[in-house]
Design brief:
disordered C terminus, mainly alpha, about 180 residues, about 80% helix
């Protein structure tokens, strides 16, 4: 839709705003935020599912062996995923910042714990598991964190452009761009 709008929009004579009027610019911004929100929704769902699987495994290890740090760790990563799902629906500044920081912190701690766990045991399978897990948490942390940062910044720019820099919930027009019904 945004590309079609860009193609049909007539340039303005003053040369400001890339040749688009305010309404067209707002529509483009809203569509970009909604596109990013869709990705945040999927990322959040993915992290919640992965965190739930690893949390159950950590609880099992705690019951059958000794305390597994994953019991707490995967609650943090699950919280990041849940916050992402909420942020994708609310499209608010505060919740998008919370998603970004929970994602960065949860993934960073997961990476550090898995990388550090390689020194606990020297069995080949254990070391491979920890290295692969550390890499996966690092890679998804960078990717999801970057997307979360972009999402947060676009919401922040939209809020500031509309004189609402501290507004947690933005334009009702933005909420009209609801996609969750399509993906559920």
């Amino acid at each position: 839709v945004g590309e079609r709008l860009l193609e049909r929009a007539e340039p303005m004579d003053d040369g400001l705003n890339g040749g688009y009027n305010e309404e067209e610019l707002e529509t483009i911004q809203i569509e970009e935020i909604s596109r990013l929100a869709r990705g945040i929704w999927y990322a959040g769902l993915f992290v919640v599912v992965v965190s739930a699987i690893f949390w159950v495994w950590a609880v099992y290890n705690t019951i059958t062996q000794s305390l597994d740090s994953g019991v707490l760790l995967f609650l943090v990563t699950a919280a990041a995923g849940i916050t992402g799902i909420v942020a994708s629906k609310k499209k608010g500044l505060c919740v998008s910042k919370a998603y970004f920081w929970l994602t960065v912190i949860g993934h960073a701690i997961s990476t550090i714990i898995y990388a550090g766990a390689t020194i606990l045991r020297h069995e080949t399978l254990w070391v491979v598991y920890c290295v692969v897990a550390a890499f996966c948490w690092l890679a998804t942390g960078i990717y999801f964190g970057r997307r979360g940062y972009m999402f947060q910044k676009r919401i922040e720019q939209f809020a500031e452009a509309h004189g609402q820099p501290d507004n947690a919930l933005l334009s009702p027009k933005m909420h009209d761009q609801d996609f969750a019904v399509d993906v559920l």
